[in-house]
Design a protein that fits this description.
four-stranded antiparallel beta sheet, about 20% strand, 12 strands, alpha+beta, globular, 3 domains
Length: about 300
């Protein structure tokens, strides 16, 4: 069992996974003196020889993909339009660059906030989990904070949602309201305003994130999730009772049999412990952690 890092689906045990290369880099290898040993011919004396160095392409980042997602994407380095390997730039989205390359289309991404403002119809996108989740989108005129604040906001959201804090990225791309933004967990949508992912809304941080983006405040306070009192009590009880399928969400030691549990059984056990969310499509683990922390429980990050 694993989670597809492209579509964010929990994949059934026994299903093969594929690694999709989404970022590469050019590397120059230096000359190294006497690092390889060459045995002598016919038992003769061998000798140490030099490594001449050279250049090449290294993999920087891969995504774990289910069979259906892997079938839609080329399992190789992101290619340019002529098919040669292309190095992903720091201002580009790995997922959308990969999709554009697979379709033979150019991928446009602006390098700076200033460049995006000059382009006119541009948007800011904050994504996480290497493109596996779109945290927010907004037309560029809704950005009132400094450019330096944007990566900090991305890091804060990544730590909240994924705890890892290494797959976040801020990108500026062309776009108008109505555009869909490709990415995992449903992707994103551009509206005439600030669009935030459902997980951020469930955490109770949608308005705060909008204010940070607008430059009206700088801090991102602890989340106070938008959950009913009944659900809040059930989440705390699940923590105290160490409900097996919720242990991973709380960072608690998990039984090994969870790795082989069918998704339907997983969902059944969670539903038995916690009522369905009101106004949201699903529960997010970040919500469980936030509720437990506010109740004074020690949640392992």
């Amino acid at each position: 069992m694993y989670v597809c890092e492209v579509c964010a689906s929990l994949i059934a045990p026994g299903t093969p996974q594929t690694k999709i290369v989404v970022e590469t880099r050019s590397v120059e290898y230096p000359v190294r003196d006497k690092v390889h040993f060459r045995p002598g011919a016919d038992g003769g004396k061998g000798k140490w020889i030099d490594d001449p160095g050279g250049s090449g392409i290294e993999i920087v980042r891969e995504l774990r993909a289910c069979p259906s997602c892997a079938a839609r994407h080329d399992d190789s380095a992101i290619a340019s339009r002529d098919g040669s390997p292309r190095v992903l730039q720091a201002h580009e989205s790995a997922v959308r660059a990969m999709i554009a390359a697979a379709r033979g289309q150019p991928h446009i991404s602006y390098r700076t906030l200033e460049e995006a403002r000059g382009a006119g119809a541009a948007i800011v996108i904050i994504e996480g989990d290497y493109g596996g989740q779109i945290y927010l989108t907004a037309p560029i005129q809704y950005v009132g904070c400094t450019e330096a604040r944007l990566p900090r906001l991305a890091k804060e959201l990544e730590l909240l949602c994924w705890r890892a804090g290494r797959g976040e990225r801020v990108v500026f791309e062309p776009g108008l309201p109505g555009r869909r933004v490709a990415g995992g967990m449903g992707g994103g949508l551009v509206i005439d305003g600030v669009w935030v992912h459902e997980e951020i809304r469930q955490l109770g941080l949608a308005d705060v994130v909008t204010e940070v983006l607008a430059g009206k405040r700088d801090d991102l306070p602890d989340s106070d999730p938008d959950v009913t009192p009944e659900a809040r009590a059930a989440i705390v009880k699940a923590f105290d009772d160490r409900v097996d399928v919720l242990c991973p969400a709380f960072g608690l030691s998990s039984p090994e049999y969870l790795n082989k549990m069918h998704r339907d059984e997983w969902d059944r056990r969670q539903a038995a412990a916690i009522p369905a969310p009101s106004g949201y499509s699903k529960w997010y683990w970040s919500t469980f952690r936030a509720v437990a922390r506010r109740a004074g429980r020690s949640v392992r990050e």
